[in-house]
Structures are given as C-alpha cells and as structure tokens.
Amino acid sequence: MSKAFPYLQTFLILIFSSVVIFMLDSFNLLSLPKSAAFYITNPISFGLYKTSNNIQKQFYFVFQARFASQENKALKEQIGKLLSENATLRKRLSESESLINQQNYLDFRTYNLVAARPIGMDRYLKIDKGKSNGVKIGQAVVFNDNYIGKIIQTTDGASFVQLLADPDSKVAAFSQGLQGKAKGVLLGQFGSDLLMDKILHEEKINVDDLVYSEGTEGYLPRGLILGRVSEVLNRENEVFKQAKVQQTFDIKDLELVFVIVE
Amino acid sequence: MKTLIIILIIAAFLQTTILPLDLVLIILICRSYIRTEKGNLYLAFFMGLLISHLNLTPIGIQSILYMISIQITQILSKSRLAGNSFMIIPLSLTFLLLNEVINGLILHQTFQISIKVLIESILSLPILYILKLWEERFIVRKDIKLKI
Asked: Which residue stretches of chain B are H helix?
C-alpha cells in the first residue's frame, strides 16, 4: 500500500489539516492571523505590482516611440500628398480665375481664344498648346488686355511664343497720355526693356504713358497694352524721338496665357 | 530545498500580482515528477495556503487541490511512462484544467478553457528540464557517498 501510495499518512494528515483550516476560515476564525499575514504580503504584492507597472510603462514608451516614428513618417507622406493636392487645386483655381478675368477683356464671342499653360521659358515662352488645338504660326498671345507675343513655332502639342522683349519683335504701337498721342514702332531689346522708335518730334509722349498696339499687323487686335513709358529719349539732332518702355507685368507670374486663334 | 521554497514564494507573488499563470502548481508538479518526497506534499500544503491567502479565496481548498495533484503525480512518476519527459505536458494540462474547473465551481466563477492552460502545460516542459538540471547537478544527496 505504502509503495503504491507514497507518504499516504502525511498526505491524509495534510488533507485533514486543510479541511480544518477551511472550516475555520469559513467561520471567520482565521481573520486575525490573515490580517497579520496581510501586513507582510500586501507591501510585497504592491511593490511587485508597481515595479511591473513601471517596467510595462517603459516598454510601452519604447513601443509607442516606434509606433510614433512610423506614424510620423506616414503623416509626413500624407502632408506631402495634401500639399501637392493643395498646390494643384490652387493652380486650377488660379487658372479658372484667369479664364474668368480674360472674358472681361477680350470677349470669347469676338475672339476665339485658346487657353494655354506656360511650360518653359528660355528665349521664347513655351506653351502646352499646339497644332492639334488650332494654334498656328503668327497668332497673337495675350493675357487679359496685355499683349505677350506671337507664335513663331508650333508642334502638335506645344508652341513657342516670341515675346515682346525679344530682339526680333517689332510691333506698331502708339502711346496715349494726358497731353496727347504718339505713334511709333515698339522694338524688342535684349533684356526686359522695350524701345519705342520712330516717334515724330511734334508728337507728345511722356513718362508713365501707356503704350498700346496699333493693330496694323493683322494678327493683333488694336488697343492691347504693350507697356508703360519709363523714359523719353529726345535727341534734337535725330529725325525721330525714342522712348523706353517697360512691360506692366512679369511673364513668369502668369498661370495661363491665351492664343487668339481667330 | 531552501532555494526551491524561495522560488516558490516568488512564483506565488508573481502569479497573484502580474503573471496570470499557475507557476507554483507547475513547479510543484515538475518537482514531484522528478523526485518523490514527503517535502513535496508539505510544499503543496503551504503554497496552497499562501496562494489562497494572496488570491483572497477560502483558505484550505487550494492546498487540497495542490496536494491531490502532487500525490497523483508522485504515484504516476513511478510508472514506466514517466521515463518520457514529454509526459509532463498532458499530466500538467490535466491537473491545471482540474484546478481551474474546481476553483471555478467553488468560487462560482464561469469556467472557460483558455489558451492560458495550454501555455502553462507547455511551459511545464522547460521548467521540468531546468529542475532536473538543478536537482542532478547542484543538489548533493545524502545517499551519495564517495568511495575512497
């Protein structure tokens, strides 16, 4: 028996003791020793619990830092996308505003205008509209009521615009001021300045007078703004007067330009 | 034995505060599986009292459960099957489940077989090896005598 059930006697005594303890505990007779034991066990349990919480917090912080880093990266990407989207929307808004503004200057019913985006700028301005959009060589490019240049080269999807300031540009122009009117030819110069030449001495021209297109070229409507007189070069020994003209806007600031195709 | 008592006390505090695994029962089962001793029953008795006290359950019940588990393990450890260390897994699984069920019945708690019991029973295998190593390598027995 003792071989089959080792330490049977001890086992039974301990079982009996457990039952007795259980009975005592059921009748609340062990409350005093239990409260005494709690004085020892509670601080240990609390210390362990606190330590474990601290360790968990540290691990949680490490985990959170890793998670935050990933989240930060994702958010940065998201911000980048949103900024890009915002820029696209702003560009579209600006283009829409340009289209609406253009209608106030050159009527779409009178002139058949094709809106084009500037896509490059070297000597000539490159625009994203070409033959497939009805753009042809010699057509005028405008913005609001300002003349920008004329098409000198075109392909199916893009065209080059010869700007007013180009040395090869030559446009019949007249200036209009409070004192009178002066006719001449506006020539492109190297740089941003334009030169209005062939002005008769008896014609009145002053600084800040606006210079308009004469419209004798055929492709260009009369009355488009070409620039503003910045200096009058009045030499007595010369046959004609000259005036320096500055453009009223910077071409690089434009979102859209319009080609007068008809 | 002193080391084992300290380890068991630490395990008791751990399992009642931060680690919801019945480490004490696992260690006791593994210990009685390796070595049949009267001390195992005493350890089961006192550790049962301590666990009951720390878990705020009626004192005595846990001791009975622990002692029954230990006594059965000691009986089974003499069988041929006990030579296979992997037998500790189903053995501890049975006792852990039994412990959970009886505790649930006594404390009127809903019992459900959770992954916790499986983890505990799998954990019993490395604990068995550690205890075996400890008992064989670091505990000097009285019956071992050097022949000069």
From this structure: 2-17, 23-34, 38-55, 61-76, 88-106, 115-138
Q: Where are the alpha helices (DSSP H) in chain A?
A: 8-26, 31-105
Structure ipTM = 0.85
Task: Specify the fold of A170-246.
Answer: Thrombin, subunit H (2.40.10)
The alpha carbon of residue B118 and the mean position of all alpha carbons in its chain are separated, in whole angstroms, by: 15
Interface touch A48/B61, C-beta < 8 Å? no
In chain A, positions 220-239, which contact chain B (CB-CB < 8 Å)?
none
Q: What pLDDT sits at residue B116?
A: 84
Residue B147's pLDDT band (boundaries 50, 70, 90)?
Answer: low
Confidence of residue A177 (pLDDT cuts 50, 70, 90): confident
- Using left for φ > 0, alpha for ψ between -120 and 50, and beta otherwise, residue A8 falls in alpha
Amino acid occupying residue B85? S
Note the pLDDT of residue A109. Answer: 56
Residue of B nearest to A21 (CA): B60
CATH code, residues A113-164+255-260: 2.40.10.340
pLDDT per position as a tens digit, B93-104: 999 888 888 888
Q: What is the rounded distance in angstroms from the CA atom of residue A117 to the CA atom of residue A95? A: 9
Which residue ranges does chain A devote to CATH 2.40.10.340?
Answer: 113-164+255-260
- Please give the average per-residue pLDDT across A58-68, as a whole number: 87
Contacts of A48 in chain B (CB under 8 A): 13-14, 17-18
